[in-house]
Every structure is written in structure tokens, then in C-alpha cells.
Amino acid sequence: GRSRRCCVGKKTMWIVLLGTAILTAAITSGIILLVTSLSGSKAKPSGGVKHIGKFDGLNRADCHVSPETFAELSSMAHLGEINVSDPAEIVKYMDFTRMAKKFDRKYDSVAERHSAFLNFRRNHDIVKSHEHNKAATYTKDLNHFFDKDIKAVAAKLLHKIDVYNESNISITPTDTTATKENQPIYATLKNYSVSAGYPPIGSKVNFEDIDWRRADAVTPVKDQGMCGSCWAFAAVGSVESLLKRQKTDVRLSEQELVSCQLGNQGCNGGY
After folding, report:
1. Phi first, then psi: what are they for 195, rounded to 5°?
2. At what angle are helices 110-131 and 150-157 packed, to 10 degrees?
3. I need a labelling partner for 124 at 20 to 30 A (CA). Which of 32, 221, 257, 260 fits?
């Protein structure tokens, strides 16, 4: 009788221990799953790559940051205005490095890269803010000036030019009268619908909302670089468009005006 009681006691003890072990494992697994769910963490990719999830409304889920990229950003932190612990900052720096690669930018020092990144970040924020402006009638995007101080660029390119007689270059908006000959082109330029038909003959047509692209009268966009020669590009573009309307599609030289039109100031402006 005693032997049987011992056997039963041992079985009971093993059952209790086994149940305790199972319960402990279940609780531990539940805690791990809970912590994982709350933190949103995932397995760390191999190679020391840092993982960043979705944040800050940027929809940049599953961003992987290489150790080299993170080290570059960290190396600039001591110069100020950079927060390496902010995921949004890291994503902006990744965008910056992509733009630098796209436009083949080379920075000779940490300080130069730091300045370029701060300019990019400022320009990036301006573009994003504009995208949320529902009243805007135009679009903005980053171009080869992505890492430049826009105020400095404007000071270089947008000169105020003193002209001999400003009345000679004043522009007064005018209307024109629709005729049988010009009806088709005005209908195209002002994007008249089929139901609206052509502008009635004898009616006034203003030019505030015309789009010469609709008439295939605009030549490709050109880049004036860091030369304040918008005056030359505007003049040449206008002549090219006039020629294109006459079925002569050519590219004329802005450089000839910049170098040879002595009444202006070359890259320092003109009219």
C-alpha cells in the first residue's frame, strides 16, 4: 500500500512540474509576442543593416539603412542641426544620397556635405509643403539645385537690371479679335471643348490662359545652369516657337547672345 502511494505521489509531482513548465513556456511566448507587436520590430537584416518601419506619414516602410550611410550621417552630427536618432532624418539623408548620385555630386569634406544636406533638407520640406497646398496652380520638385541655398541661387541668377528706358520693355496685356483665319489656333490654345466650338468670329480673345504646348509650338526645356542668362533663353525660346509654328523645328544658340550681344551683361543679366 505504501509503495502504491509513493508511485501516485511521484506521478502527481511530475504532472505538476510538467504543467508548470508548459504554463511558463506559454507565458514567456505570450510576453515575447506582445512586446514584438507593441514595438513593431522585425528580425534585423544581416550585414549590420538597420531596419526602419513606417513613420511620419512618409510611407517608407521597410527602409534598410546601410552602415556606411548611417556612419556618413553620424559623422556630420557634431556640426549641428542633425538628429541621427530621428528616423525621418535618416530617410531624408537616404533621399539626399540618391539625388547626389543622380547628379554626380562630389563633396570634398564633411563640412561641405553637411551644408549640402541641410540645403537639401530645407528644399525638400518646401516641396513637400507645397504638395499639400490644394490651392496651388503649379507644381514644385527638386532638380540639380537640390543641394543649393535657393536664396544664393536667386541672387546669382535673378539680377535686377537697370535699363535705359523701362517704358521700352513694359508689357500691356491685350486682346485680339477672333477671325475665320485664327479661329482654329485660338480654339487649340485656349483648350476649347468640342461642344463649345470655336471662339465666335468678332469676339475678343485674351491671352491669360493660353497654352502653346497644345499647339505643339514649344521646344524642349533647356538649362541655363549657374549663368544669369534667362534673358537669352527667353528670347531664343520665343524665336524657336515662332519658327516651329511655321513647321521649322530648330535649336538656336543662347550662347551666341550671351557672348556677342554687347548691350547686355552676359551671365550677369540682360533684357
Report:
1. -70, -35
2. 90
3. 221
3-state secondary structure of 94: helix
Could you write out the DSSP letters of every residue in 151-211?
Answer: HHHHHHH------S-GGGG-----EEE--TTTHHHHHHHTT--TTT-SPPTT-EEE-TT--
Q: Are 118 and 146 in contact (CB under 8 A)?
A: no
DSSP string, 16-57: HHHHHHHHHHHHHHHHHHHHHHHHT--PPPGGGPEEE-S-TT
* 0.70 exceeded by pTM: no
Identify the weakest region by mean pLDDT among 14-18, 51-55, 69-73, 177-181. Answer: 51-55
Digit-coded pLDDT (tens) for 128-152: 999 999 988 889 999 999 999 998 8
Q: How far is it, in rounded angstroms, from Cα 245 to Cα 185?
A: 10
**What pLDDT shows up at residue 201?**
80
Q: How confident is the model at residue 25 (pLDDT cuts 50, 70, 90)?
A: low
CA end-to-end span of the chain: 118
**Beta strands at 204-206 and 63-65: parallel, antiparallel or unpaired:** unpaired
Residue 194 has pLDDT above 90, yes or no: no
Provide the residue type at 252 as one letter: L
* Rounded alpha-carbon distances, angstroms, from residue 114 to 84, 121, 187: 13, 11, 52
Average pLDDT, integer, range 184-202: 70
CA 19 to chain centre: 60
Q: Look at strands 63-65 and 175-177 and give their pairing.
A: unpaired
Contact 232, 270 (CB under 8 A): yes
**Helix crossing, 87-102 with 67-76: angle to 10°?**
100
